Amino acid sequence: MSSQTSPKITRRATRSGLPQLSVYFSEAWRFRTFAWRWSLADVKARNFETSLGRIWHIINPLLFGLIYFIFVGIIAGGGVGSISFLGAIVGNLYAFLFFNMIVTMAIATVQSGAGGVLGQSSIPRIVVPIASTITSMNLFLRSLVAYALMHIISQRGLHIEMLLAPIVVILICMFGFGFALICATLNVYIRDVSRLIPHFLRLWMYLSPVIWEYTRITGGGTLNQLARLNPWYSAMTAWTISLGGTLDPNGPKIWEQIGVFSIWSVAIFFVGIFLFISKEDEFAIRN
Asked: Rounded distance, CA 95 to CA 159, Å?
């Protein structure tokens, strides 16, 4: 019987440790249909193509919003001037859960796919988190239909700032994608990352103006200044203003917050991509 030699592991890398980016992204673009089909299959696998699945996906943020509305607005004495506060919480939750979904789904798909069919093929691994991000965007856009009804009921009105909402969505998607790539890469080396991320994201949500108004930390003081360094402060402030108008004429301006969050989003986006690409050849071995 002839002896079998172990397969050679090759790496198309430059001196920096990264592959030739032009070739890599060209290869990733060739699999755009694969990413789209993967996303559609993922949607079906999560029962979002059934009636109950679609209904649950729509009402889930509404239920969360109602719970937080009770705790923050009533029990904690946060002050509930009108139902518009509930509408603001629900709208903010849709945005943050969009980010949450991008991160958790990317980690799960990279963890399960790196050692499977993708581990035995030459498909660029970044195609997988791209597919999961497409899925997250698909589900987020569907959920906005339900929020539109809540927006009308809560009488948040129509504002010129609504024209900037798509920009905020794109920035959230970029920030989420880059952050997801960083977490997915870390999870390959430290398995407990996937268990810690849900708790970290929940804590991050509590520390951000998602279920409370951004005007609470517009004053001076070291603590307030540190709180405003949170990327999600600028993100949720811009998102809140884009949907409901400014809460304080003398407070943060939407263009300023979009500018700050743009810096965060672009930085995290490229750091995540370069980190993921530089380490992806080890995914199949470590999985």
From this structure: 18
In tens, the pLDDT along 114-143 reads: 444 555 566 788 888 999 899 889 888 888
Return the DSSP state at 221.
S
Q: How many CB atoms lie within 10 A of CB 240?
A: 28
Cα atoms in the 13 Å half-sphere on the side-chain side of 244: 26
Structure tokens given for 234: 């600028």
Nearest to 269, CA basis, from 202, 193, 186, 172: 172
Which DSSP category does 61 fall into? H
Give the torsion sign (CA, 214, 219, 224, 230): positive
Hey, what are 53's tokens?
């699945």
Q: Whose structure tokens read 């796919």?
A: 113
Owning domain of residue 247: 38-286
- Report yes or no on 15 lying in a domain: no
Residues 6+ apart with CB under 8 A from 122: 27
**For residue 190, is it within any domain?**
yes
Which alpha helices (DSSP H) does the chain contain, by range? 21-30, 32-45, 51-68, 84-113, 127-153, 165-189, 193-206, 222-227, 231-244, 254-279, 283-286
Quick: pLDDT tens for 206-224.
999 998 888 888 777 777 7
Helix axes 231-244, 165-189, angle to 10 degrees: 150
Confirm whether 14 is domain-assigned: no
Q: Is 213 part of a structural domain of the chain?
A: yes
DSSP state of 121: S
Q: Which long-range contacts (CB under 8 A, 24 or more apart) does 234-238 make?
A: 234/258, 234/260, 234/261, 234/264, 235/95, 235/168, 235/171, 235/172, 235/175, 235/208, 235/261, 235/264, 236/92, 236/95, 236/96, 236/208, 236/209, 236/210, 237/209, 238/164, 238/168
The structure tokens listed for 282 are: 């080890």
Number of domains in the chain: 1
Mean per-residue pLDDT, 47-59? 65
